[in-house]
Amino acid sequence: MKRTLSIILVSLCSIAASAQSKYFELGKALDIQNTILKQLAVSYVDTLQFDKLVMTGVDAMLESLDPYTVYFPEEEEDNVEMMTTGNYGGVGSLIKKKPGCGVVITEPYPNSPAVKAGLAPGDTIISIDGKDVFDETSEQSSNRMKGQPGTDVRFKVIKGRTRDTVDVVVRREKIHVPNVENVQMIQDSIGYILLSGFTQGAAQEVKEAVQQMKQQGARRLVLDLRGNGGGLMSEAIGIVSLFVPKGTLAVSSKGRAQGMNVEYRTQKEPVDTEIPLMVMINSGSASASEIVAGALQDLDRAFIAGTRSFGKGLIQTVRPTSYNGAVKITTGKYYTPSGRCVQAIDYSHRNEDGSVGTIPDSLTHEFKTAGGRTVRDGGGITPDCVVEGHKYSRPVVSVVLNDITGDFATNYYKTHPEIAPAAEFALTDAEYEDFISFSETQEFDFRSGADAEMTKLIEAAQYDGLYDSCKAELDALKAKLDITKAEALRLAKDEIKPLLEADIAVKYYFQAASSIISLRSDKQLLECISKWQ
Q1: Burial classification of residue 391, based on how many CB atoms lie within 10 Å of its CB (0-12 exposed, 13-18 middle, 19 or more buried)
Q2: Could you list the active site residues?
Q3: For residue 98, what is the domain's CATH number?
Q4: Are 147 and 102 contained in the same domain?
Q5: What is the count of structural domains for the chain?
Q6: In this structure, is residue 477 part of a structural domain?
Q7: Are residues 438 and 294 in the same domain?
Q8: What CATH number does residue 256 fall under?
Q9: Mean pLDDT per segment of 10 residues, for the chain of length 533 residues?
Q10: Which one, out of 16, 25, 415, 495, has a CA that is 20 to 30 A from the CA of 518?
Q11: Pairing state of beta strands 314-320 and 87-90?
């Protein structure tokens, strides 16, 4: 008994000493920081902006932990609300702004204040509340367009189609960006639901979409999570609950803080526990997307198809800070019903150069689904059926990244009052040639992948002193690979044309039109459906 009591006392003393040591190190670090700041205030050669200096330190400190732990000052309050609820106060439109130019309306949201006020794609805002926008950044103009719902913002606008300059008053509203972008029937009996986010209300939106598809006769459902970077865990659990019995374990969490070690079970009655379900994922599917895909895979409730997901198994919690700020902190890891953690990158064990690495497959572990199938942890969700997505050629990627398709689509809208419904809309060969002519006036890297590699080969040969001996052969091959912008765009027509049609259709029929057109050439989806039993 005395020996047991001694062990307990030694353990308690060790814990107390450890806690004291931890708080001593914290106090020591804060004292060092405070002393350095005081010395800078007294001795540094130039005048310092201490608020910016300290924020630089805060940002660097948090960045050293992981990419998801972030501080938001009071002026970024709208970003926090947008991140968690999908809501913000504003006019409801995507915009584009180049230095020294006006603010171009590129895509108003359906039923938004912008639409109600008559703003359309291609309209250019040149002043906001009497102050011109030319010297502002896109972010500065955007911040002035946002504001408290119910307040007015006054624009001076050059209309895209008529070139008339008009005054437009827009009454701001609470803008909600929908999570479900497209709901439609494909192949007669398959209901397709594209989910792009997990902000507040996502589960209800998916529920309504499922009910809509069933009413239209769907006998199978596709839930597309490709490119969905996640959001609220509660919404992910709500989506899982639509397809499994009430009380089913959907996900669990583990962390250091009290209250983080929790099992989350579905709380609502399902919509349908029997309808065949396929969930599409890819490397852009992360966080809440992986909770949904992982749970439905572990429960043998869905056929998971596509490519391996991103591998973000970390949970963030938003905490308030002084001066009305907020900090988003990684507070735990989540685990699928079989016990898997899908986190791919170990931020707590960095390499000597500060870089991080993924967990190798050799160090992953096997787990079992409800039906006894083997699944693994440590690197995202691996689909039941792996089908690679389309890899776009180099010039296509450059055209899209430089928003040349978007700019052409805006110009197209200005000169075409109407187009066919999205499902039927297609560009003519002559219109594609117009796009080529437009693109020839724009800056983008139109070299093929082979041409880019050839340039590297010539540079390497020159560096190694081999170029002169094979100059004729290298130059001849380089000449064959050199093509004009027009030739590059004609070669890539089958890739670019669907993207261009989608960008144009969005101007007339909003975001859902993009998905409707994209589905026409989605070979990955079609192949996954063909392998779905």
Answers
A1: exposed
A2: 287, 298, 312
A3: 2.30.42.10
A4: yes
A5: 4
A6: no
A7: no
A8: 3.90.226.10
A9: 54 55 80 90 89 90 91 79 74 93 95 96 96 94 92 96 97 92 94 96 97 97 96 95 98 88 95 98 95 98 96 90 90 94 83 66 84 89 95 94 96 96 96 97 90 88 88 86 90 96 96 94 95 87
A10: 415
A11: unpaired
C-alpha torsion angle, residues 187, 191, 197, 200 (rounded to 10): 160
Give which of 58, 69, 15 is closest to 332, Cα–Cα: 69
If asked whether residues 338 and 372 sit together in one domain, one would say yes
Answer whether 316's CB lies under 8 Å from 287's CB: no
Check if the beta carbon of residue 361 is closer than 8 Å to that of residue 291: no
Quick one: which of 314, 421, 305, 361 has its CA closest to 67?
A: 314
Count of CB atoms situated within 10 Å of the CB of 447: 18
User: Of 155, 176, 197, which residue constitutes the final position of a domain?
Assistant: 176
Is residue 323 situated within a structural domain?
no
Domain boundary among the residues 176, 198, 217 is at 176
Contact 189, 179 (CB under 8 A): no
277-281 and 220-224: which strand pairing?
parallel
CA dist 43 and 49 (Å) reads: 14
Q: What tokens were used for 309?
A: 């997901």
For 94-128, give one letter per residue: b (16+ CB within 10 A) or e: bbbbeeeebbbbbbbbeebbbbebebbbbbbbebb
Distance of alpha carbon 454 from alpha carbon 478, whole angstroms: 7
Mark whether 152 and 187 lie in a shared domain.
no
Asked if residue 521 and residue 377 are part of one domain, the reply reads no
Burial class for 224, CB neighbours closer than 10 Å (0-12, 13-18, 19+): buried
Task: Tell me: do 215 and 341 sit in the same domain.
Answer: yes
As a whole number of angstroms, the distance between CA 323 and CA 484 comes to 56
**In a shared domain, residues 215 and 291:** yes
CB 456 within 8 A of CB 425: no
Residue 284 lies in a domain: yes
Domain shared by 55 and 161, yes or no: no
In sequence order, the 6+-apart residues with CB closer than 8 A to the CB of 514 are 181, 502, 503, 505, 506
Please provide the average confidence, as pLDDT, over all residues in the chain. 90
Query: In which domain, by residue range, is 153 found?
Result: 89-176
Asked whether 168 and 105 are in contact (CB, 8 A), the reply is no
Strand partners, 104: 96, 124
Give pLDDT tens digits for 377-431.
878 999 999 999 999 999 999 999 999 999 999 999 999 999 999 999 999 999 9
How many other β-carbons are positioned within 10 Å of the β-carbon of residue 380?
A: 26
**38 assigned to some structural domain:** yes
Which pairs count as long-range contacts for 165-168, CB under 8 Å and 24+ apart, including other chains? 165/126, 168/117, 168/118, 168/119
What pLDDT score was predicted for residue 87? 76
Q: DSSP character for 83?
A: H
